[in-house]
Each structure stands twice: as C-alpha cells, then as structure tokens.
Amino acid sequence: MAKKDPLRQCVGCGEAKSKKELMRVIKTAEGEISLDFTGKKNGRGAYLCKSKLCLQQARKNKGLERSFKMSIPKEIYDSLEKEYDALETE
After folding, report:
1. 10-14, 50-54, 75-79 — which one is most confidently predicted on average?
2. What are the structural domain ranges in the chain?
3. Are 56 and 12 in contact (CB under 8 A)?
4. Which class is domain 7-89?
5. What's the pLDDT score for residue 39?
6. CA atoms of 20 and 53, how far apart (whole Å)
7. For residue 39, is it left (φ>0), alpha (ψ between -120 and 50) or beta?
C-alpha cells in the first residue's frame, strides 16, 4: 500500500495540502523564527504555501502569531519575505 502523504494547513490561505507542497516555518526553543527547508528541524512548525501571497495573508490574519502563540515582529516577516524572494529566483 502506498504511503499516505500527511496533509497540513496553510496558515495564510487555510487550504490543506500535502507537506511536500508547503513551506515549513519553525519557532525554535530560543524563540527564533525561520524557514525550515528540510522539514526536519526541531521546533514548533507552521506551514505556508510556497507563494508570497500566502505569507502576506498570514501576516494580515496573524496566522503565524496564532500558531506560535506569540507576537511576531515586523522584521521577522520581512526576513521571511526575503527568503521567499530568494526561493522564487532559484
């Protein structure tokens, strides 16, 4: 039997997609927030679609704040946007 791909919900648009289609954002024990490209880093994870639009939606609807139960400074969103830009140019 084929292995079932786990579904995760995007904190931006709210759509459930397979883990492979989504980008993982993690909060480490130190409270640091970054993109997890491997999907295996330790920390609390939240998922976003690989489009910048969803990141902007998550910023507007405070999706990451809810997932991580903390307020997220503007600088963190800015650095995530930069990481997304780098992804889109690859």
Report:
1. 10-14
2. 7-89
3. yes
4. alpha beta
5. 84
6. 18
7. left
Neighbours of 70 (CB within 10 A): 13
Residue predicted with more confidence, 6 or 87: 6
Backbone angles phi, psi at 37, to 5 degrees: -75, -30
pLDDT tens digits for 17-56? 998 899 999 999 898 888 888 888 999 999 999 888 999 9
5 within 8 A of 53, measured Cβ to Cβ: no
What number of residues does the chain have?
Answer: 90
Q: Which residue type is seen at 77?
A: Y
The conformational region for residue 41 under phi > 0 = left, psi -120 to 50 = alpha, else beta, is beta
Q: Which residue has the tokens 């295996």?
A: 40
Residue closest to 72 by CA, chosen among 38, 25, 37, 40:
25
